[in-house]
């Protein structure tokens, strides 16, 4: 009798540690992650260490950095991804700030801002070609305003950057808006009654509480922009100015049939992204990251 | 620490609409420097709206607010310089207790030495010395409340606004903080406007009560005036429990009214002009259980008895079915037939 009293049943002890039948709900997700992410990733990783031509396991990586055309893709991709992500995050702040709270037409405006997500990259790229192309509306107006020659805004760096901004902005905006809505509005009211002007309230209350969210938004926007592929081909100059890493990986693997080298480029792509995200998240740890509600 | 005194804050027909509904229907109120005024009423009575209008967090729909004949209702909150204590405290979660308290001073670019001195003083005043370097999330509800109060009063504002500051605390802490707020008011003399739905809190704290209902002021007066001499049926029912006995009016002069309730004649104080039908308001503790017949007595049957220590809470029923709540020291049991006597001045007759 005493033994029964001293020890709770196995089921209770397991439940205490969080092991119960609800865990089965994790199974589909876990299987999915293993089959579609972990396995392909590890397969690609080991493949990248088996160069087609034989030799050192690191041969593919050595080749990448010694081939200027390939090595340059890192810089080209960063030059597109970083400004696009930064612009999207910064541009979303004032708009999200204005769109907090309720007002007439909020839903229509949100829809308008989010629609580019539904269009897809290809449609956006085609639109850009038509609008910014040498005979597009933009250049017709540009020339009518007295310019000597049409502005070159497609099939180069700018075309891809515009495309990344158009498709990436909705994500950045939605994330920023949700972070901003999570900040208790009475905090700003309290700051106002304590004599803080609008600018001071933004600087001392809103910004510090929003910054960790902006860091995450930046990371996600960056990842999205860094893996750019379709627009780099369609509105960019895929052989030169916008020869981004994903194009290099694709060409190597599927045009030159060198899957090992293609895998190596894909791995380097992941590494660059991880480094950028790592730097941003390390900065984020220096910020206040607790609750942003009123009770603190 | 003494606040920048003012002589008179005047609300002149202040109105505020939300959509088509008027939350505040023309509020007139004069607050004198140093006073502790409580705005009292149930939720939706407009008390918080009035406070937010005073703070500048809500623009007025109409009317004006003047501070010593200077118009202030067109100033943004940061220019009014009133301290405010929010219901949810609204402490800045990313700042330590000290930085929270010093926030207003640093916004005013107060020199560092003075800022330190005044924050020290405020921290001491609300007894948070041990916790001054913690963050709000590490504090208990009562401690957070103290920070919120210190943050509002460190600026020595001419007016402190408090929006149900005790409603998030448990009962024991609520009593303790209530005393604390009264103590701070007495030692600092800061003019305070305090919003609450709790009549006990309002009676205990305020020099003057403003009873609101549906955006309209019902009565303004000292706690005793409002408690003992309510001007209408609504205030009578709201300020502590009163039995509302339906009666028919048989006679009335300027002060007294004679009414019939349950076939018995009652004499009471006339509080309003009366028509034929009226209500007699009587507090449960104003009934005395008596044996002999006499003036102002009602016969009732005891139905439920609750033991409350020194006294009993009794639910009794008149012959016509009207329920009465009675508090008495007599020991009664369900089924007892009792005779209840009530003094004339404790029967308030309202239309």
UniProtKB/TrEMBL annotation, chain A:
Could you tell me which InterPro entries the record lists for this protein?
Answer: MetI-like, MetI-like_sf
Instruction: Give the way it sits in the membrane.
Output: Multi-pass membrane protein
Signal peptide (residue range): none
What are the record keywords, sorted? Cell membrane, Membrane, Transmembrane, Transmembrane helix, Transport
Residue ranges of every copy of the ABC transmembrane type-1 domain listed in the record: 74-280
Transmembrane stretches in the record are 21-42, 74-97, 109-137, 157-180, 209-229, 259-283
Can the keyword Transmembrane helix be found in this entry's annotation?
yes
What Pfam families does the annotation carry?
A: BPD_transp_1
Can the keyword Membrane be found in this entry's annotation?
yes
Task: Kindly list the places in or outside the cell where this protein is found, as annotated in its UniProt entry.
Answer: Cell membrane
Gene3D superfamilies reported for this sequence: MetI-like
Top-rank taxon of the source lineage equals Bacteria
The cross-references to PANTHER family, in alphabetical order and at most eight, read: INNER MEMBRANE ABC TRANSPORTER PERMEASE PROTEIN YDCU-RELATED (PTHR42929:SF1), INNER MEMBRANE ABC TRANSPORTER PERMEASE PROTEIN YDCU-RELATED-RELATED (PTHR42929)
Family classification = Belongs to the binding-protein-dependent transport system permease family. CysTW subfamily.
* Protein name (database record): ABC transporter permease
Source organism lineage? Bacteria, Bacillati, Actinomycetota, Actinomycetes, Pseudonocardiales
TrEMBL record, chain B:
List the InterPro entries. AAA+_ATPase, ABC_transporter-like_ATP-bd, ABC_transporter-like_CS, ABC_transpr_MalK/UgpC-like, Mo/tungstate-bd_C_term_dom, NA-bd_OB-fold, P-loop_NTPase, Transp-assoc_OB_typ2
Q: Where is the ABC transporter domain?
A: 9-239
An example Gene Ontology molecular-function term: ATP binding
Which Pfam families has this protein been placed in?
ABC_tran, TOBE_2
Which UniProt keywords are listed? ATP-binding, Nucleotide-binding, Transport
* The name this protein goes by in its record: ABC transporter ATP-binding protein
């Amino acid at each position: 009798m005493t033994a029964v009293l001293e020890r709770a049943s196995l089921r209770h002890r397991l439940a205490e540690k969080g092991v119960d039948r609800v865990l089965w709900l994790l199974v589909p997700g876990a299987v999915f992650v293993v089959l579609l992410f972990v396995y392909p990733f590890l397969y690609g990783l080991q493949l990248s260490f088996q160069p087609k031509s034989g030799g050192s396991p690191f041969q593919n990586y050595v080749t990448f950095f010694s081939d200027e055309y390939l090595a340059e893709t890192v810089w080209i991709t960063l030059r597109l991804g970083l400004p696009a992500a930064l612009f999207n995050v910064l541009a979303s702040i004032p708009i999200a700030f204005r769109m907090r709270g309720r007002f007439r037409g909020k839903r229509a405006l949100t829809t308008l801002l989010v629609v580019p997500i539904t269009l897809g990259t290809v449609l956006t790229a085609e639109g850009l070609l038509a609008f910014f192309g040498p005979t597009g509306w933009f250049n017709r107006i540009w020339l009518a305003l007295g310019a000597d020659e049409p502005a070159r805004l497609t099939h180069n760096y700018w075309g891809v950057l515009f495309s990344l901004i158009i498709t990436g902005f909705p994500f950045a905006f939605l994330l920023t808006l949700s972070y901003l809505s999570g900040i208790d509005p009475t905090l700003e009211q309290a700051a106002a009654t304590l004599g803080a002007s609008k600018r001071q309230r933004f600087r001392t209350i809103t910004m510090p509480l929003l910054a960790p969210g902006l860091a995450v938004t930046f990371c996600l926007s960056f990842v999205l922009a860094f893996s750019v592929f379709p627009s780099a081909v369609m509105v960019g100059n895929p052989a030169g100015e916008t020869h981004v890493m994903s194009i290099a990986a694709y060409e190597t693997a599927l045009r030159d049939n060198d899957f090992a080298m293609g895998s190596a480029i894909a791995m380097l792509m992941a590494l660059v992204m991880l480094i950028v995200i790592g730097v941003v998240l390390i900065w984020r740890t220096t910020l206040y990251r607790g609750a942003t509600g009123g009770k603190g | 620490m003494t606040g920048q005194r003012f002589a008179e804050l005047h609300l002149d027909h202040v109105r505020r609409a939300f959509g088509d509904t008027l939350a505040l229907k023309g509020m007139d109120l004069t607050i004198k420097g140093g006073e502790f005024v409580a705005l009292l009423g149930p939720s939706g009575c407009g008390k918080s709206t009035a406070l937010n209008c005073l703070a500048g967090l809500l623009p007025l729909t109409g009317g004006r607010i003047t501070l010593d004949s200077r118009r202030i209702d067109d100033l943004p909150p940061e220019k009014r310089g009133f301290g405010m204590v929010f219901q949810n405290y609204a402490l800045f979660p990313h700042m330590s207790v000290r930085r929270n308290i010093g926030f207003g001073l640093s916004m005013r670019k107060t020199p560092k030495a003075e800022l330190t001195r005044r924050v020290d003083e405020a921290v001491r005043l609300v007894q948070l010395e041990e916790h001054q370097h913690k963050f709000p999330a590490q504090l208990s509800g009562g401690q957070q409340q103290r920070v919120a109060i210190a943050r509002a009063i460190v600026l020595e504002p001419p007016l402190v606004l408090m929006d149900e500051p005790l409603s998030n605390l448990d009962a024991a802490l609520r009593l303790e903080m209530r005393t604390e707020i009264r103590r701070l008011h007495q030692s600092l003399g800061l003019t305070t406007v305090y919003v609450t739905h709790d009549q006990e809190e309002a009676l205990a704290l305020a020099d003057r009560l403003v009873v609101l209902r549906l955006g309209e002021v019902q009565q303004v007066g000292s706690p005793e005036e409002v408690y003992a001499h309510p001007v209408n049926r609504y205030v009578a029912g709201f300020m502590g429990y009163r039995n509302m006995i339906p009666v028919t009016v048989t006679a009335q002069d300027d002060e007294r009214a004679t009414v019939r309730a349950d076939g018995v004649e009652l004499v009471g104080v006339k509080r309003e002009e009366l028509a034929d039908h009226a209500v007699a308001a009587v507090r449960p503790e104003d009934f005395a259980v008596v044996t002999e017949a006499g003036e102002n007595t009602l016969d009732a049957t005891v139905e439920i008895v609750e033991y409350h220590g020194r006294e009993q809470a009794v639910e009794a029923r008149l012959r016509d079915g009207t329920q009465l709540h009675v508090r008495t020291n007599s020991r009664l049991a369900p089924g007892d037939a009792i005779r209840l006597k009530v003094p004339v001045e404790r029967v308030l007759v309202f239309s």
